[in-house]
Amino acid sequence: MRKLVLTALIIAIGACKTVPLTGRKQVALIPGAQMNAMAVDQYQQVLSQSKVIKGTAQAQMVERVGQKIASAVERYLRQKGHADMVKDFKWEFALIDENVANAWCMPGGKVAFYTGIMGICQDEAGIAVVMGHEIAHAVASHGSERMSQGLIQQMGGVALQVAINDQPEKTKSLYMTAYGIGSQYGAMLPFSRLHESEADKMGLVFMGMAGYDPREAPKFWERMAAQSGGNQPPEFMSTHPSHSTRIKDLNANMGEAMKYYLQTQQGQ
Fold it and tell me: Rounded to the nearest 10 degrees, how much is the dihedral formed by the CA atoms of 122, 21, 139, 256?
């Protein structure tokens, strides 16, 4: 056991990289190309097993907002010298008919919204809040980081291809959990809350650059809090920050996002 832990630590230290948008160090054992390839298969599998809504006003809004946020992300990364982070992204946006308040973005820009969150979004600005946040997860490689942690904790840091060959179902479960398609309460919990806060901050900038007012983000989370009816678990037991913490942090990070938003308004 001690040898296994030591091996995992050595692997983790050797695979550290920096999140360009925040400067935070992260463990990344899995090349982006591999994560993107898995995303194509997993995304199509989810869509094939779901009722995907097309052509409606809501579906068109998801697509429209998604394309605007994607364009803003690419522009932002070019300005910061990190255009390579999304050079292989092939953006797709789907609306799934299921009454759950959820959305997610896999590597390579594979996005899904569920109809259960559309009423809370209310309009394009609300969709942009969620879209910016979820795309931020993919841009910052949060899923890859979480999956790397899972490979270390559950499989001793084996290579992804070995994990796929030897334990395909367990590897698939790790992947789905890493991208918010599953749920887990365990050792990775603190990292998940950190990722959520990081994605909130980045998402504000992305929606602002896309021309959506970042001040709509706290309003969205106020509606989400009202929707939950006070049934949210204590923050230390949740993979997400509490609604009140999230709203406070969003307001604290509003200044930078507003600069980008006001620039888009001046250019109109």
Answer: 20
Alpha-helical (H) ranges within 80-123 are 115-121
Q: CA 192 → CA 126, 178, 230, distances in Å?
A: 23, 9, 21
pLDDT digits (tens, 9 = 90+) for 50-85: 999 999 999 999 999 999 999 999 999 999 888 888
Q: Supply 124's token pair.
A: 């394009």
Output the six-digit token pair for 198.
């990081």
* Strand duo 110-114 + 92-96: pairing: parallel
Active site includes 134?
yes
| Digit-coded pLDDT (tens) for 114-143 | 999 999 999 999 999 999 999 998 998 877
Kindly name the residue from 74, 92, 134, 196 that is annotated as catalytic: 134
Neighbour-count burial of 145, counting CB atoms closer than 10 A to its CB (0-12 exposed, 13-18 middle, 19+ buried): buried
